[in-house]
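lol ok so funny story. i was supposed to be doing the assay writeup but got distracted and ended up predicting the structure for this chain instead. priorities right. anyway since i did it might as well share w the group, maybe its usefull for someone
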Amino acid sequence: MFPNFRQHHNCYCAFCKSPRRIYRKRSISLMNVLGSALASVVMMFAIWQQFDPRVMIVFVVCLAFSEVFVKIRWRLSVVCRACGFDPVLYTKDPQAAADKVRFQLDVRKQDPKYLLAKPLNLPAIPAEKAKALQEKGKGRLVSRSI
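and the output, tada:
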């Protein structure tokens, strides 16, 4: 109904192309700041029963908690639950992201609850291109090891 007020963004994993929902907010917004201010004022009157300048410390702590909560929530929603692909880690260290996907796929291969699950739509690399990449020393290809 109101597309700007939706909290989630529907998208697909860049590696296995499974549908996902990602939180839109990466950091706090004006509403979080106002909520932190309201929480700090309520805590101020609950603790000191009058206006006290120490409320600024409580306000900063509330802002820090809300920022950490929003960042962690967004960061956990970005990682694919099916294959373990992490686009944030991939931009920083592609080899670590490949290792993480490889580990997740090995766990998926060994876990019996995935025996009847829908198979992942992993990227297919032609055999010639895979052989050329491995000869260059790029390492083991994840899609060829399944």
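The longest strand covers residues 8-12. The beta strands are 8-12, 19-23.
back to the writeup now i swear
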